[in-house]
Design brief:
268 residues, 2 domains, 8-stranded mixed sheet, 11 helices, 8 strands, 40% helix
């Protein structure tokens, strides 16, 4: 009993540990600091604190504040060069879709079981990085332009080395159709100028979409052509068009004020 009292006395003399862990300057900035409005200034601040793209990615995966998350992703991506002079005029060269609507629509459509993200026409790779920040385990880009592939592979090398991202050179129209079946979430921003060819590509993706998978086109401008090519009653819609495969059938999304409804896509 005497030894118990001695041990208790020694413990009482020890300095008490703080109940809250001290944040590092990096953690404090990511979690609490006011973010500069300008992306370049924000990127400079991240650099000065030696906060790299992967650390920002890990933070964003847990961050609930969408505005803060989008700002950090945009700041990291603003350093990625964008080569816009396409050698093949049948493809759009390096067109970027704004980060805010991308993050918002992907978050609304992503299911917890979605792991593999695909960007067809991945350009400078910024959406591949953003997808990782939104919780995808791996992101893969397919890009036909050699310059863009080399540029994006170089810029995102640190993420690629972690085997979290891959960027492949290839033509979306000629790649083996089964290639697309491995992805949970396929994203594209109408990379081909010709509407009939774009409709053919989209129909291929519809056919290869895996069970539970999402197919997202944020620039649906070829609905009439897709209707003819696919034989499906594609709704009259401009802009965002998303499909989901459930029980072997295709459904398109329709948003209401507080939720989303999946509506069966009928054959013509």
């Amino acid at each position: 009993m005497r030894w118990i009292f001695i041990a208790m006395a020694l413990y009482a003399c020890q300095p008490k540990k703080s109940s809250t862990n001290q944040l590092t300057p990096q953690q404090n900035f990511l979690q609490k600091a006011h973010l500069p409005e300008n992306d370049s200034l924000l990127q400079h601040r991240l650099d000065s604190l030696h906060i790299n793209a992967w650390e920002v990615c890990l933070y964003c995966q847990k961050e609930q504040d969408n505005t803060r998350k989008i700002r950090l992703i945009s700041a990291i991506c603003q350093k990625a060069d964008n080569y816009i002079n396409s050698l093949d005029t049948s493809y759009w060269g390096g067109i970027l879709y704004r980060m805010k609507p991308f993050v918002e629509v992907v978050q609304r459509l992503k299911e917890p079981y979605h792991r593999n993200f695909m960007d067809i026409g991945s350009g400078n790779g910024e959406k591949l990085y953003a997808a990782l920040c939104l919780g995808f385990t791996h992101s893969e880009g397919l890009e036909y332009d050699t310059t863009l592939v080399n540029m994006s592979q170089k810029h995102w090398q640190s993420i690629i080395q972690r085997q979290k991202m891959s960027i492949k050179l290839g033509n979306a129209l000629t790649v083996t159709p089964q290639y697309y079946h491995q992805f949970d979430f396929i994203y594209l921003y109408s990379p081909i100028r010709n509407h009939t060819q774009m409709a053919q590509l989209f129909f291929t993706l519809m056919q290869q979409l895996k069970e539970g998978g999402i197919l997202l086109e944020v620039r649906m401008v070829y609905a009439p052509e897709l209707r003819k090519v696919s034989g499906y009653n594609i709704p009259e819609i401009m802009g965002t068009f998303a499909l989901k495969k459930q029980n072997g059938k295709l459904y398109y999304v329709q948003y209401n004020e507080s939720h989303k409804d999946w509506i069966l896509l009928d054959k013509l």
